[in-house]
Amino acid sequence: MTYNPRDHYFRKAKQENFAARSVFKLEEIDQKFKMFKPGQVVLDLGASPGSWSQYASKMAGEKGRVLGVDLSPVTVKLKNAVFIQADLRDLNLEDIFKEHGFVPPFDIVMSDMAPKTTGIRMTDQARSMELCELALDVARRFLKKDGHFVCKLFHSDDFGKLRDEMKKTFAKVEAVKPDSTRKISKEIFLVGLSKK
Predict the structure, then answer these.
(1) For the domain 8-195, what is the CATH superfamily, name and number?
(2) So where's the catalytic machinery, residue-wise?
(3) Which of 37, 145, 152, 196 is flagged as catalytic?
């Protein structure tokens, strides 16, 4: 199969005014697990270019809020969202929450963070795992009881360890590769449902 950057999902995202095709991965995950509800407060890690935040914003509605964090700027404008351009590892999240009027815990913590790839599979997988572990740590600290967590990672031999680690925190853990994920992609999504 030939790689086509402007595939069906790319065109659909443009038609529906989403910042990126990745929105459909989150939408598929939500359709399967019914995580999003009106009025929720959502923390989006790795928010750029903004499509996951757009989806969360739409689902949370006027009474919900979204806080997005990314190294890269997020240019989408959403009435119920705030975006911080920074390295998550350098932030004092409590200060950021207070500064922007967010009071944890969050209903959903989601991470579409990805490392800058090197082309060296093991290096890229290890960096992806580190980012997912960072996101899991944030979820453990700031996600409410019965809240949900979604994290993208590049599949590797350490995948099972991370899934087992998540099982300590969540009532149910599922691995998902949405149909909208490119066939050649090694990314997979771990979903933690109902934080203990």
Answers:
(1) Vaccinia Virus protein VP39 (3.40.50.150)
(2) 152
(3) 152
Give pTM, 2 decimals. Answer: 0.89
Residue 185: band (very low, low, confident or very high) from pLDDT cuts 50, 70, 90: low
50 marked as part of a ligand binding site: yes
101 is in an annotated binding site: no
Whether 152 is a known active-site residue: answer yes
DSSP letters for 29-88: HHHHH----TT-EEEEET-TT-HHHHHHHHHH-TT-EEEEEESS------TTEEEEES-G
Query: Is 124 assigned a ligand-binding role in the annotation?
Result: no
112 is in an annotated binding site: yes
pLDDT in tens, 117-165: 888 888 889 899 999 999 999 999 999 999 999 999 988 888 899 999 9
Looking at residue 2, its pLDDT comes to 45
98: Cβ–Cβ under 8 A, 6 or more apart, which residues? none
